[in-house]
Amino acid sequence: MSPTGRRLTVNDAPVDLAGVPAEERLLDTLRWRLGLRGTKEGCRSGECGACTVLVEGRGRLSCLTLTRELEGLSVTTIEAVDRDPVGAVVQEAFAEEGGLQCGYCTPGFVMAATGLLHDRTRARSAAEVVRGLGGNLCRCTGYLSIRRAVERAHRRLA
Ligand code: FES
Ligand code: FES
After folding, report:
1. Residue minimizing CA distance to atom 3 of ligand 2
2. Quick one: which ligand is closest to 105's CA?
3. What is the value of pTM for the model shown?
4. Do residues 86 and 78 make contact, with C-beta atoms less than 8 angstroms apart?
5. Whether the Cβ atoms of residue 55 and residue 75 lie closer than 8 Å to each other
6. Going by DSSP bridges, is the β-strand pair 52-55/74-76 parallel, antiparallel, or unpaired?
7. Is pLDDT at 2 greater than 50 in this prediction?
């Protein structure tokens, strides 16, 4: 337990919030405080999706999230997505379909798709999952390979 008792969990490890300023964004905590550089920094304004992580299994833009708001919650980044059964399938599908070129957007797509595919309560179709990725931008692939990867993962998880 941290001295203050205030902490969150990142990739199953406790993170002490005592030294984290109130205005620090989760994106900066992950990349610069914890060295988890797989979460990418794009626009920093909620426009590109590159910074998406999972919070309690749901996709969340880390550039628009204050770290201290997540006290007591669990964060998963791309570095640990393969520990998540759904995330492992999504990651594999992206590799198989070649859903990347420069790869800058890929962690955000993988995390966002994983979050959407976790949402079984809404029985999402593959098309709904693809639509749900509308906030994630890629300037390299034309999205076709990304869509195929999502469809492949959806089939495997059906
Ligand atoms: S860096 Fe967060 S949405 Fe672009
Ligand atoms: S693969 Fe380059 S931005 Fe998506």
Report:
1. 138
2. 2
3. 0.94
4. no
5. yes
6. antiparallel
7. no
